[in-house]
Structure formats: C-alpha cells, structure tokens
Amino acid sequence: MEETEKIVEEAQQEIATAHSSRALYEAKMKYLGRTGKVTALLKGMREIAAELRPAFGKKVNDLRTRLETLFASMEEKIKARELEEKLSGEQIDVTMPGRKHARGALHPITRTRQELIEIFAGMGFEIFEGPEIESDYYNFTALNTPADHPARAMQDTFYITEEFLLRTQTSAGQIRLMEKKKPPIKMLSPGRVFRADDDATHSPMFHQMEGLVVDRHVTLCDLQGMLDEFARTMFAETSKTRLRPSYFPFTEPSVEVDVSCAACGGKGCSLCKGTGWIEVLGAGMVNRRVLENCGLDPDEYTGFAFGMGIERIAMLKYGIGHIRSFTENDVRFLKQFQD
Ligand code: PHE
Q1: 72, 206, 311, 325: most buried by Cβ count inside 10 Å?
Q2: What pTM was estimated for this model as a whole?
C-alpha cells in the first residue's frame, strides 16, 4: 500500500521532467508497460493475504487510472508544444528562388509528325499504320511496280528474303487499306521506311507521311487545294505550291510538289538555291492499275496520293542542315525544340 503512494510520487516527478514525447513514452512504459512497476504490483497479488486482496486490487487499479490520466494530460501538452515548434520552424521564405526541374521535350520528328497529323486530321483523314517488314507484293508489285520494272532501281531496297523486305515507302499502306475498305477513303499513314542511302539529306532509315484520298469525282485540283492548305498551315500564311510533272509507277499523272521558299518568300536565296521553290513531296492521281489491284473499279472511283519525308519537312521548317542531327541524340540540338 505504501509502495503505491511512492510510485505515484516518483511517476509525477518523472512526468514533470519529461520534455519530449519520446521521454514521456519511455517513462510511461516504466510504470504502465508490460514489465512496468504497476504491472509488477498486479502480478504480485498472489503473495497478498486473501482478505487484503480486494482492497489491494482496488488500490492498484486506482493507481493505474491515476497514472494513465496524468500521462495522457502531459502527453497532450507535449504534443501541442511540439506541433507549435514544428510549425514555427517550417516557415517558407516565398522570396527564395524556386528549384527548376529538368523537363524533357518531344523529338523534332515526333513533333513534326504530330503537326502533320493535326493538319490532316482537321481535314477528316484517318490514321492507318502498316508493317515495317513488308512483302514485295505490297511494297512494289501491287503498286504497279512488277519485278522487272525499271522504277525498282529508283530505291535501293533492303531485302530480308526474296519475298520480304524493309518497306521503302509508306505507299504499301495504300494497298493494305484499299483491300480492306471501300471508298470514300481519306487515309494518313505515318511510318519508318528504309533505303540503302546515306548522305547529308538521306539516311538509311527515315520517316514518311503518306496520304490517300479515293472517292467518286476526286481530281488533281482537289490535291493541289489540299496541299495549299497544308503548306499555309505548316510553313507560312503566304506559302504557295507548284506542281511539276514527274513519274511514279503507282500514280498517273504524277507530280513533284514544290512549296514557295519560306526563308526568302520566293525571291530566291541559298536555301532554295535561287529558285524561290523547295521540293517537298511526291504525289499524283492513283493509277488505274493500282485501283484494279485492290478490286476497285477505276471507272467509278478516282483518287490521289501523296508521300512526304518527315525529316525533310522538319529540316525545312526548322532550318536543320544535316539529316544525321535527328539520330545523333545531341542534347544541345534536341533542347532547341522545347516549347
Ligand atoms: N512513295 C513515293 C516515294 O517514296 C512518294 C509518293 C507517294 C509519290 C504517293 C506519289 C504518291 O518517293
């Protein structure tokens, strides 16, 4: 009984001198924990004479309740003080300069591809992506370029087997789509293409954007009108296009499309080599034979197709001199395309 009074005094002393929640917790365990002094008293009940036990039990229980209350109220005080200290110590100096986070950016090819998609999606084109490993049939034969056709020499092809190759042009997608879908067709097909070619403006892997429109009464005028719109959005409000006769086996007539030089406004400069015009893509009316190869009646349907190099468009738009800049991963180059 005397012991309990002593314990209360002792505990009160320790509570008063505990200055952190940690110290208070340790003190609490010393009395109320599993091996604490109060718990020890309860365990010692067995040694007490039976008639004294109820009174002793009550005393110890009272002691425990008292201590619990004392600890709880001190705990509250200490917590409040610690929170107060934490808050006042964590003041934010809003005049400090902020920390900058390094931000990534889209690769100029990705960016140009997205810009192109946006322009043509606005005109109602849907995206179609064909395979990079293509059969000779889709890449050449169905595009009116049979095995003995001299136009095959226009492109240096990477053959995998006699039947399969790395596609040299996204035009292969024209056939794949027309086999599946009946007109009206408005397809845009971006993708990587491969040719054994390597200099300042050619690389063995590059990107193309193919366009195909097939319906009744589609004309060459529709093609030029649409390309004018593309040039104005992509290059400059005042950009114009010019069609020059050309040759592709899968279009007839075929044209090479020039855009007025955005750097000099058409007056002639070093970029356009004094001509005022820059060649940007190949195009033409879909050859009757190609429509036939896909099961479409060329007397009912006509169409136009165009294909452009995404690298070439990006080089013109951003004034990039060497095609290898796109694949060298030089951060100084890539950083310039951050918005
Ligand atoms: N496929 C042609 C090339 O790679 C470009 C082209 C596409 C021409 C569609 C006409 C029509 O050179």
Answers
A1: 311
A2: 0.71
